Amino acid sequence: GDRQFFFVNGRPVDIPKLARAANDAWRRLELKHKPALILEFTLDRTEVDVNLAPDKRELVIEREDSLVAALKDLLTNLWTTDARSFTAT
């Protein structure tokens, strides 16, 4: 989405699997739109290869599937908790 920004170690990147995980978690709440996101991931430099394209926006992340699953779980829990509602007394 045009309102979704991902960074790895300070570098803007395109990570379709992470965007898809975030969108899947959001779909449980709302189907019409995608969530606006700015996500920064700090990863060990030995686990990231940015030398795939000249602009360095494409990368390979070791254990990417684990990162994708963790993000989806985190966002699902964040967006479905009762933290969004308050009781007035």
| Envelope shape | elongated
The largest β sheet comes out as: 3 strands, mixed
Q: How are helices and strands ordered from N to C?
A: EEHEEEH
DSSP strand count: 5
In helices, the fraction of residues equals 25-40%
Structure notes:
There is one protein chain. The chain is of the alpha+beta class and 89 residues long. It is 33% helix and 19% strand. The protein has 2 helices and 5 strands, in the order ββαβββα. It has helices spanning 16-27, 64-80, and strands at residues 4-8, 11-13, 37-41, 48-49, 60-61. The strands form 2 sheets. A 3-stranded mixed β-sheet has the order 2-1-3, with no helix packed on it. The protein has a two-stranded antiparallel sheet with strand order 4-5. A hairpin with a 2-residue loop joins strand 1 (4-8) and strand 2. The longest helix is centred in the C-terminal third of the chain and has 17 residues, at 64-80. The radius of gyration is 15 Å and the shape is elongated. The mean pLDDT is 84.
SSE inventory with pairings:
Layout: E1 4-8, E2 11-13, H1 16-27, E3 37-41, E4 48-49, E5 60-61, H2 64-80
Helix pairs in contact: 1-2
Keywords:
2 helices; two-stranded antiparallel sheet; 89 residues; alpha+beta; single chain; 33% helix
Short description:
With 89 residues, the protein is an alpha+beta fold. 33% of the residues lie in helices and 19% in strands. Helix 1 packs parallel to helix 2.
